[in-house]
Amino acid sequence: QITEALLKERDKQAKWNGIPLLLQKLYEHSHPNSDFSQCQSILKEISPLLSMEAMAFVTEDRKAAQESTYPNTYTFDLFGGVDLLVEILMRPTLITQKKKQKISDDLIKDCLSILYNTCICTEGVTRRLAERNDFVLFLFTLMTNKKTFLQTATLIEDILGVKKEVIQLDDIPNLASLVSSFDQQQLANFCRILAVTISELDTGSDDKHTLLAKNAQQKKNLGPSRAEINQATLLNIPGFIERLCKLATRKVSETTGTSSFLQELEEWYTWLDNALVLDALMRVANEEAEQSSTESSDESGLANTSTRTQLPQSMKIMHEIMYKLEVLYVLCVLLMGRQRNQVHKMIAEFKLIPGLNNLFDKLIWRKHSASALVLHGHNQNCDCSPDVTLKIQFLRLLQSFSDHHENKYLLLNSQELNELSAISHKANIPEVDAVVNTDRSLVCDGKRGLLTRLLQVMKKEPAESSFRFWQARAVESFLRGTTSYADQMFLLKRGLLEHILYCIVDSECKSRDVLQSYFDLLGELMKFNIDAFKRFNKYINTDEKFQIFLNQVNSSLVDSNMLVRCITLSLDRFENQFDAKVAEVLSECRLLSYMSQMSMRMSFLFRLINIIHVQTLTQENVSCLNTSLVILMLARRKEKLPFYLRTLQQMEYTEKYPGFILNNFHSLLRFWQQHYLNKDKDSTCLENSSCISFTYWKETVSILLSPDRTSPCAIVSYIDEAYMDIDRDFSEE
């Protein structure tokens, strides 16, 4: 509505670079009946003005970028450029006539490109677009066109990243046929978009949310979340999981020909978000080209020309790594979701695990080549390099794959499965059903299975490596569930116990996360296994070493309580066995002798109750409450519960603070009832890990909570009236 004269007059002064005038022309040429022929040349004038700024934004230090302004993109948006482009793109959807208007691919590309650049540089544009649900869903329909696929995918990814609520995949028109129209390369890129739609919005800090807050949230959310509905939608797309498994396991040599890859690189080159990646890729390419041309200079010039047309191997590898990352992430989320068993069946059937096993040395845990791709200012092992992210994603997948699921035996090969059977026969114990029932045609092939390969790299990992945590978690999840002697022996024979102790004691590991994962793994490895305790004693063979070990355990009980639980349970079982070997280990093992002292068990119990409170319970530290319960359940079996409670009362008096432990414990147990007696709660984990029936857990808690002050097993009998503070209700504050 502003006159052309006024715009011209203000243009120089306001440094608008003619953008408002160009937009006015664009508006005139894009009315409903126009043929858009002029639009493209106008966009060609606008585009460079914006892409320069976007390039500056991406390559500049992000901090500086926040401070500097991007006048061109701002002006473009201010004068309605963004809304106009959205209107042009969506115009064909409004027309009902038979003769549909066709917008050329190049025009679509230019529109998307400009929108993306504006989103990068101008605050709030992405959010505005995200609020337009019709536009977001419309963008998905543009993905059917190969020529505009990459631009569309990148813009969608950006928009979904800021969208407040997860979009519903069901709403995308013809989703199944859209996905089936993608080639493997496009499918991998599409996985980047899917990642946002199937993950819960704030899963990042799951362990950190208090259980009170989570329980309150669950009461509000009665139905499945959008992310869960989206997971189900994906699983219903025919052939979807099979294609993901193929993508995840294909070798680098199987990737498609050079030309489409080069074309994609060029597209990316105009596509800014990955300017850094491309810089690095190009550098790698040049290095390799120079290398091969110097090597072959004495032969005829033929070799030289072939290097030009062939893609350097490391670029192919990098490309493949970036694809696999996205695919493994999606598979991992699906494995942890509600349809876990269905996903497990499919993944096994499509041989994901043997496929990954074959890629292990060459791709997943490959040795870094001299010119491995590194982004500016990073080193090869920093957490954001694709190599590192792939390794972590791979370890997370293994963890969710083997956690409490019998398919975990697919991580072994046939000889290794036979070895498990042999261990069971030798020890005169029945084989685990899951081992017998494992379909041998789906297990790993080759010299080693995936689990043993993982153990090998785990032992070689440098002390300060960030992978140690994930490696330990992956191996621990293989042992989780009902304790299996054969599984433990399989790992003990490969020196795992000594490796863990070396890390905890000799290298005096300092990282809390890594220590926690090692203590958890050690607990699963040693539980009820007399041979493991014997090995422990052989390794920790001096008082000095034992003292370092105890210091590590005591430095943070939140991290080591699962190990304390395992030693307590094992000791209890060994004391009830009448076997010469067990008796010998019981008398010699430093760890078991230490734990058999009543004063030590009481000290652990006192501290475990003291470090948690109902208001601060999280998924991570609630295990301290369960460990303290295990100690008391074992006491109850021996009819020593009153003695333990009296001792706690005496310890309070020594600390000159009567009632503070027992009042807290009373509240914690009331919360325990609320939390674990919920119909959705899975109590099998507590049963499996302790070999104590859930009924006994429940009974013990209600005996402890009995309001009868004359009962010798009720907590209230040990709190003086004056210090009683047990009736408060929990709130989510």
From TrEMBL:
Keywords recorded for this protein, A-Z: Receptor
GO molecular function terms listed in the Swiss-Prot or TrEMBL record: phosphatase binding
Region spans: Disordered: 288-308
Pfam families xref list: DUF3689
SUPFAM superfamilies: ARM repeat
A GO biological-process term: ubiquitin-dependent protein catabolic process
GO CC term, one of those recorded: Cul4A-RING E3 ubiquitin ligase complex
Keyword Ion transport: no
Name of the protein in question: Short transient receptor potential channel 4-associated protein
